[in-house]
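Need the bound structure for calcium ion, inputs here:
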Amino acid sequence: MTQIFAHRGYSAAYAENTMSAFVAAQKAGADGIELDTQLTKDGEIVVIHDEKVDRTTGGNGFVKELTFKEIRKLNANKKGIRKEPIPALEEVLEWLKTNKLVCNIELKNGLFPYEGMEKKVIELIRKYDLANRIIISSFNHYSIVYSYQLAPEIETAPLFIEGIYMPWIYSQSIRAKGIHPKYSGISDSVIKMTMENGIAVRPYTVNRERDMSRLFQVNCTAFITDDPVKALRIRGEYEKGPQM
Ligand code: G3P
Ligand code: CA
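Answer from helper R.:
Posting the output first, comments after.
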């Protein structure tokens, strides 16, 4: 059955990329979470989507120009009542040891190459012995290949916006075991052929009921959604089968 990954945690109901959003996704029954990583000025891997802290916190500036101490003073839950820090990746991995979730770590190194980011992320994954529950993804496919070279035991998956021709061939050529395409850029037949060729397909970001249904129908490996509760409800209907 198609797995459900919570995009930036349960971000439809909680502040994105916060521990609250991850814990809520796990409590809801999601199979996995997706999160974004950037690198601070002093070399800490932090969980935040944008290169700048402005949109998601009350602060301003580039993550790469702020120290971890400065980052931790910011509020990643600026619309909420309770203040929440931007998580360190290490904090999320430590929490992952308490549950069975799969975690898709997206390296946000498309704009800034963040030298050393892959090594640091892999060191943390190995420290917590989580290689079999992590998927490293990125729009930066050079980084995907480099991650594979550093740690062939960790699954990698390139992210795509546009549909590419025979993605399983490309994926095999860079030794990635999965692809993470934009949901609207991949047809049912390409999903099926990719999976038949042994490559996992996890489209993003799937929030509409009809798009979720389509992916359950083709038995897609997984999809990434802001609303794991909605996805679980729809999957439940498929699991029950047709009502007489
Ligand atoms: O990993 C899938 C998706 O998160 C990629 O786009 O911008 O939401 O990080 P974005
Ligand atoms: Ca992401």
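Comments: The two ends are 22 Å apart (CA to CA). The chain has a mean pLDDT of 97.
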